[in-house]
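Board notes, transcribed. Complex of a protein with FSX.
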Amino acid sequence: MQISRRAFLKCCALASASLGLGPKELVDLESALADPQAPSVLWLQGSGCSGCTISFLNYVSPSEPLDAADVLIKSVNLIYHPTLSAGAGESIVADVKKAENFILLVEGAVPTAFGGYACSPWSDGGREVPFQEAVRTLSAKAGQVVCIGTCAAFGGISAMGANPTAAKSVQEVIGKSTINISGCPPHPNWIVETLVQLFQGKTVSLDGRGRPVSIYGSRRMCDQCPMHGREEARTLGVRGQCMEALGCQGEAGSAPCPATQWNNRVNWCIAAGSPCLGCTDPAFPGTASLFRRRGGPGGRGRGRGRG
Ligand code: FSX
């Protein structure tokens, strides 16, 4: 089934509306998509749980294109995605090696212990290629490197605790700045909005953590939270009360979850009765009380993350 350009733009329009983009931006996007020289996309997956890809796939529409896979595979030049690409093996490796003029999306942290062989995306000529080597090589050729998720952006869960694979953020490994779409996982609209801006050739304005200002803003989650100032809950499972005393991380970070919500605006963590885990924060999961062992922190401490 071929996805028409019109259908793709309709899909982008739905995402853009929830992000506050206007008709002018959509016209710009249409122009950008008409350009056959528009950047291709190459998506790598390293040390993570693949939740970032799953979150992206939750970008759905009741009308065609029905899901993000349709968008990426048939409307954008997707060179490679480990789980979404139809191809595999030597032909894909050849396509990756000859790729030029692309945006590199990296999901998951980069393991650096054991010569990097804790994670390998493919073999080349019979040699297992360490993920860190693939990230370094492709980021040097990419027009832009975008980290999808907190693991790629800051290390995240993959780099917590003893971190036996010495997992690091992409920026630590490649030595140059990245656009960081943090979140564990990030919201699908945050990914789409960033890609739209890049397809339009716009410079994405970033905060001190490398995150798009248009998405993450500067307001603490707490200041946007409808529970702010309410009676404080003392036990989990009580809705309609502030969960600061239960370790809510809403004071620590800024993210638009209260506005965008999740699963097609069905709900978000606080409204579902869960404290914010601060999953967009560089120090995550060290900041999240639910990840701590009784009697002391079980993850990385605040301040070890970038930003
Ligand atoms: Fe990390 Fe992605 Fe969290 Fe998982 O792979 S940001 S563990 S939701 O999915 O990298």
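Confidence is low (pLDDT under 50) at residues 1-6, 29-36, 293-307. Residues 78 and 229 are 46 Å apart (CA to CA).
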